[in-house]
Automatic annotation (TrEMBL):
It holds the Pfam family TetR_N. The keyword Cell membrane does not apply. It comes from Salinithrix halophila. Residues 20-80 form the HTH tetR-type domain. InterPro entries: Homeodomain-like_sf, HTH-type_TetR-like_transc_reg, HTH_TetR. This is TetR/AcrR family transcriptional regulator.
Amino acid sequence: MRGEIEFMPRSPEQNREIREKRIQQILDATLCVYRERGYHGTEMGAIARQAGLGRGLIYYYFKDKQDVFLTLIRQTLELWKVEVDPLLNSDRPVAEKLAEYLRMICYASLEYPDIYHLHQSITRDIKVLFPEREKEVYGYYENNMFQPLRNQFLIAAESGEIGLCPEVAERFFFSVLFEAVSQDYPRARDSVEEMVKAALYGLVGSKKGKPE
């Protein structure tokens, strides 16, 4: 009939784009609410309001709040691994790769503070928040962050590039790394290089001037 509006069905590509957009909208809203209220205060209704979506639509994409957070944790860690893989797989000396890794994560934490607040805070309570899926959550961190760096320490130890055993080097580096992205104190971009230098070469930088 004349005057009727014909609606063309969406293509699979359009449906996929809409789905991805909605999911990202929900995840971004979750980050905002989590920063203000913490895990227990981040209810599905609050996420829906922050995202500007209906509560029912949130449940269309996610089973429950835990599902939202697990997706958020997994996605951000996988994106980080994609970002740093070219660096870690390059032929540069390990010390250079570790220095650049620290720079990247420091600058990223300044640019995306909500993401780094999520990981810094939620890793303290994985056993409590995800008791039935604890192994799965730890696996996200192991596969996307810990293991790729652990491989670098093994390579450096075998080549003699570092004088510490890989286990000690790994513990030290991650302690510096987590402190570097800590949200407990303010950081500035002009302090990143000093932090990288201290992390790799120590406070003195050489044995000169070392007290007997």
